[in-house]
Design a protein that fits this description.
The chain has a single domain, classed as Rossmann fold. It is about 35% helix and about 20% strand. The protein is built from five helices and seven strands. The longest helix is centred in the C-terminal third of the chain and has 22 residues. It is globular. GO terms for molecular function: hydrolase activity.
Length: about 220
């Protein structure tokens, strides 16, 4: 089993002062391999203003000379050990428990590795997270103890990916195509010509997805 991981509480970018979190809806951004907390923070301008945004840094440093941070090691195209993805998901949950307890809801938005960790955290604690946004990521193969519970809860998940994304191996994409609809309330889109990246059209769809979550929060409070 991998060593327990911990996120650096000082390496977090917030859209609002964390003391303003009480009763508000939080969305946590998880960057991809070789990046850091600054990478996705620029998306804040595209997200509904009602959200507090926290962009966290992954706990590991990838092998030199790769810059930035990583959520779990990658050894070759198929070298993604599920136990390491789970360890990263557990570290994310620990950070949320320590720093986001006052939030009215917590949602996750991840890119690539960060998307895989977002889905893994959702599987570990289906009741803890309101939704997940999976950008150019995948669902990790292998069973987890609460997968059946997740399939009953069926939290909303948006999955966006490009037709020219050659970073995520095809078997992982094929697994995700089958796994997500069986366990979540899935929406999303495949973007023609998009590589392993995020497009304006995708951000428009993410915004619409998040607006829908806000509408659900509001109706649930009535």
């Amino acid at each position: 089993m991998p060593e327990p991981l911990a996120l650096d509480a000082a390496a977090v970018l917030w859209s609002h002062t964390p003391t303003d979190l009480a009763g508000r809806h939080l969305i946590v951004l998880l960057h991809g391999y070789g990046s850091d907390e600054r990478d996705l923070f620029g998306l804040t301008a595209y997200l509904p203003a009602e959200f507090v945004v926290a962009s966290v840094a992954a706990p590991l440093a990838p092998p030199w000379p790769m810059p930035g941070r990583s959520w779990y090691p990658i050894e070759g195209l198929d070298g993604r050990d599920p136990s390491h993805v789970t360890a990263a998901g557990e570290a994310l949950i620990a950070w949320v428990d320590a720093h986001a307890a006052p939030a009215a809801s917590v949602g996750l938005l991840g890119f690539s590795q960060g998307a895989a960790v977002s889905l893994q955290a959702l599987r570990l604690q289906p009741e803890r997270f309101a939704y997940a946004v999976n950008l150019s990521g995948y669902a990790t193969p292998g069973a987890l103890p609460r997968d059946a519970e997740l399939a009953e809860v069926r939290p909303p998940v948006f999955w966006g990916r490009g037709t020219r994304d050659d970073v995520i191996p095809s078997p992982l994409v094929e697994h995700t195509v089958e796994w997500l609809p069986a366990h979540t309330d899935l929406s999303g889109r495949v973007y023609p010509g998009l590589t392993h990246s995020v497009s304006e059209a995708e951000l428009d769809d993410v915004r619409a997805f998040l607006d829908k979550q806000l509408e659900g929060f509001a109706s649930g409070a009535d």
